[in-house]
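Title: Request for sanity check on Phosphotransferase enzyme family protein prediction

Description:
We are preparing a figure and want to confirm that the structure record we downloaded matches what your pipeline produces today. Could someone re-run it with the sequence below and paste the raw structure tokens into this thread? We only need the token string, no images.
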Amino acid sequence: MIPLYHRRLKIADLSTSNLLRYAQTYDEELTTLEPLKIEASGRKYFRAESDTSSYVISFDDSEINGQSIFIDRAKELADCGVRVPKIYHFDLINHLTLMEDVGDHSLINEGDFYQKEELVFSTLKLLNSMHQSKFENLDTTFWIGLESQSKKFSEVFCDHFLKLKMFDKYQDLYLNLRHGIMDQQWTNCHFDFERRNIHLLQNGDLALIDFQDMCFGPIGIDLAGILIDHYIPCDLDKVKENCKYFSNLSVFSMSSDDFYQATLWGGLQRNLRIMGTLTQLYLKFNRSFRIRDLPQIVLNTATISTALNQDMLSNFLLNDVMQILERKLVKL
């Protein structure tokens, strides 16, 4: 690797040649560039490589929680001992960041993840380290969007996508959810602390990515993100077991049952939000990349709802939503 003087390079478009040229201002030996993924938020990722080096380039022109926030959070997390990709160079004018390539092995690639106790526990240790990190100007407005995020379920997923009328007294659900979320412990919240955003490195360390949406929020949101998966059936006994472990580990003095209840309410909020978000992306932008995950998310939400004594929601999901959703997906 030959690090160069960081000259400014004006990029008019995100063509492969222009992005490679940008990466070469840091390492002139780089020869290839390939797109990696586009996030739901619109962030775009690319990999630049040579025979001996590899980097990831991020393009993020978001006005809220964009590139500059990501850079700040990366430094703050690293300063507190949380493993994140190293930032090598950034261009605030063109919204580009050149960072360490932590590979493609996210925990989503770990088959039988929840049967690998040590790996799950390592992930919870990472979460606890994140809870103890120090941040400047951390957003504390989670509560403002709480209801609107959850209502994406009724307004976007049920009404606009499925053309399905909500059950009677469904407004009580949001009232119960508000109490379940607002009354729990609040702390540093990644907001998307799930397996695809945690990478297993060759030395066994875990690296956290996509942390630009970090906020001050309910502890159950991130616990649910890692303990209640969107892709596999929810095992509440396993969730309880992992909450018990976390209660002995956490910087917060909470009982295992308190952590469990927080996780369930966090899981309910996350799932209602993601059902609305995924269908909104499909309806507005024809992005169907995760629309096939919806049936499992619905079933997991029904399981969580039953555990929280939200039986009307559980029955609605199993008896109404699933039937219409399955018919809808066949036609897509």
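Thanks, this matches our download. The longest helix spans residues 256-285.
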